[in-house]
Amino acid sequence: APILLADYRPPAWTVEQVELTFDLAIDRAEVDARLALRRKVDEPIRLNGEGLELIELKVDGRVLSEGEYILGDGMLEFTATGDTCVVETRVALRPAENTAFEGLYLSGSRETGFLLTQCEAEGFRHITFFPDRPDVLSRYTVTLRADKARFPVLLAGGNPDGSGDLPEGRHWARFVDPHPKPSYLFALVAGRLERISRDHVTADGRRVALHIWAEPDAIDRCDYAMDALVRSMRWDEDAYGRNYDLDVFHVVATHDFNMGAMENKGLNIFNAKYLLADPDSSTDDEYRHVEAVVAHEYFHNWSGNRVTCRDWFQLSLKEGLTVFREQSFSADMNSAPLKRIEDVALLRRAQFPEDAGPLSHPVRPSQYSEINNFYTATVYEKGAELVRMLAGRLGPEGFRQGMDLYFARHDGQAVTIEDFLRALGEANGIDLMPYLAWYEQSGTPRISADGRYDAAQRRYRLTLRQRTPAVDGQAARRPLPVPVRLSLFDPSGQATPLRLEGEAAPDGVERTVVLHTAEQVFTFEDIAQAPVPSLLRGFSAPVILEYDYAPDELALLLRHDADGFNRWEAGQQLAGLAFDDARDGRQQGAALDAWTTVLAALFHDPAVDDALLAELLTPPGEIELVERQPERDPQRIRDARLRMLGALAARIGVPALRQRYDALSAMARGDLDAASQARRQLKRRVLDLIALASPDDGRALARTQYERAPAMTDRLAALSTLALADADAAAEAIAHFRRRYDGNALALDKWFAMQAQLPGDSAFDRIRSLEADPAFTLKNPNRVQALIGTFARANPTGFHRTDGAAYRWLADRLLAIDALNPQVAARVATAFNGWKRLEPVRREAAHAVIAALSSRRDLSRDLTDILGRVALG
Ligand code: ARG
Ligand code: ZN
Asked: Closest ligand 1 atom, CA of 102?
């Protein structure tokens, strides 16, 4: 039965103090726990525990015999008489057999690998018996014991509190965390690791030792992460007044991790993909991801750890907020408009399809059967958009005051979204509770806008309407508060001063109006000519805007809009219309013509910087374009998109493209500064256009670029262009890359993923031969995502074969993955999300496979949950 938000009850017993002692080894570990409990409600003590071998249970010093407790169904239950009691358990674990990477497990080989833990959301119950829920906050003392030669490094969260040798070549180390925390933030690491270190003095004067740990072959790839960590700490001190609160901060890299990274108190653990970086094997995007994820996990120390979630329904309280903080940091460190473009593109690519399909759920779900399946784009990315809306509503100072109150009022507590809205609101004397509806309703709202210009009255009336498509099982939709930031442009491209009806004087050329009801009219006075509205500037709300722009209106915004985001957005909208032309065979269509004409002009405009130009030259991807189709035929979408890009290449002309490409190549170095990154981005777009317009040129340039590339970004881009242009010509380079990076797991992941994306009929055979590569394994989540995840999610023409062969293959692989790692299986299975909107032949094929798979009774709860929801369509 699902768990319901409405059923929430506070814990019957809390744990004030936890003492854990681990005897660690690869095959078998023993865990002694001593819990000091306090009664809140007159009920038995119930402790969660999964897959634990119980060796001994004592209550207040007395061993309980078998008849005195009940053990079953993931729960240990017994009674206690007083209002406080001390429970002691001893359990045994089998780390090397733990392929699910939840709880205590082994990363790497038995000989050289290391032990680590992952507890969020409910992994701690795989380590010891405990009330494993985020509203039980306890002080932890952790002692680790292990063989000194095999496990020279012993780490746990908290401040170090002694270490020393033991008989028989063993040693111990103890850690005390003074800050009460929920069990999901517990972590330990033990093994042969190396470190780089730096000191940081916080704004409030604490000297903190920072250590980043990695396996010996990776330790020289941690410097960038260390710089990013120091930048993050400074930024949180300045932007939010938040200081770190322990004497040490550890960060550890592992190649075996289900998610991106984890904010365990004082001991963050990272998927190596988001921590290691070096020019030879990392792309520019990866450098930015490392910076962002390091910041994200660090920022959790306040938004998540010091103030945590009451229950898992509130997950976005920490994740949406922390993604927003991370986005703001990245915008400050890099280009703010480009960051906004990147964030919105991700929202549209990942969250909009999720919210439009069977896995749609509110940012705060009201029920779940497996919480691991709710670490979604909706909880993270849409959740961040909601915080951004609130921040926009309050303004920078008001938002900071609100956050100060939130942190001060709730420090050391486990709270709810309502608490967050109340603190932000009360600090500003504003009622923000109407925004709760955004957290409770799923689906992407559609805002339709309609502008009427009255020349006689010199008035512009803008009508805004909202509607959110109904979703089964959800009550009637309430109207949401929707902030719409806007400007009005005159036909020459000038922004007009804005005076709303009833106001004495105009107030700037940009305003935010808030739509509170189903429909509202905003009247602007003194407008001299029919304007072109620039709406939802900066993407001021996570909605789909419907406004019937003519191509030349979008072209005007694309040329003149000063808001970098909306300029790009006008280009995306125009590209959407151009795509319709290309798909329907209108090679002379007005939109296609306007899109290619403006971009060709911007291509030569020195005022447009390389980075923005690269973004402008990138139309929406095949996955976003699905939204423009009533029924999805991936091949048609791809063909039409290529036709529109071909028309663009022809309009700019091969000589101009070549000239630009040569100029960018002449400046190519491996440097990481923004200008160098922008040049590489643009070069990649230009090379792709050349390859479309003149395949022979494209092939030759790509081969040379591959050979001479000073860094991974150029190398990988060239390889991918070459492979798209001519599989035979690419074979040699692909084999070369494989040899060059043998043993470099992260580089090989890119090699698998690049090939997994190559489109068309031959894709499926390619995948199957890649599966036979000795470096491929179903046991490593990154490898599975690189090959199987990429193929199923990012290769629409290859995966959605009309014969359904790839669907059957995926079902088969899901069974094998599920037996090893349910979380990974469930995540890969979300690739079936959009099956109902496929054209009939593919839809039938997909449905048959999903129905057969979801009727099986031997699947994990994770996979059963995803398939069950997907099957309903
Ligand atoms: N809290 C982690 C983050 O920073 C993610 C952990 C997800 N874990 C999981 N089992 N789903 O976003
Ligand atoms: Zn997070």
From this structure: 10
Residue 469 above 90 pLDDT? no
Q: Given pLDDT bands bounded at 50, 70 and 90, which one contains residue 721?
A: very high
Tokens at residue 287, please? 């450098």
Nearest CA to ligand 1 atom 1: 262
Q: Which structure tokens are listed for 723?
A: 């492979």
Average pLDDT of span 289-318? 99
Beta-carbon contacts of residue 30 (< 8 Å; ≥ 6 apart): 22, 23, 55, 90, 91, 92, 93
Atom of ligand 1 lying closest to residue 318 CA: 1
Predicted ipTM beyond 0.90: yes
Strands (E) located in 114-247: 114-118, 138-147, 153-156, 159-166, 170-181, 188-191, 194-201, 207-214
Cα Rg of the chain, angstroms? 28
* 413, containing H or E segment: strand 413-415
Rounded CA gap, 22 and 869, in Å?
40
Residue with tokens 């349910």: 822
Q: Which of 259, 823, 824 to mutate to test the pocket of ligand 1 (most atoms within 8 A of CB)?
A: 259
What pTM value is reported for the model? 0.98
Ligand 1 and 121: CB distance under 6 A: yes
- Which candidate, 288, 293, 286, 259, places its Cα nearest to that of 750? 286
Q: Is the CB of 593 under 6 A from ligand 1?
A: no
Contact present, 232 and 244 (Cβ < 8 Å):
no
Please report the DSSP string for 103-132 in residue order. EEEEES-TTT-EEEEE-TTTTGGGTS-B--
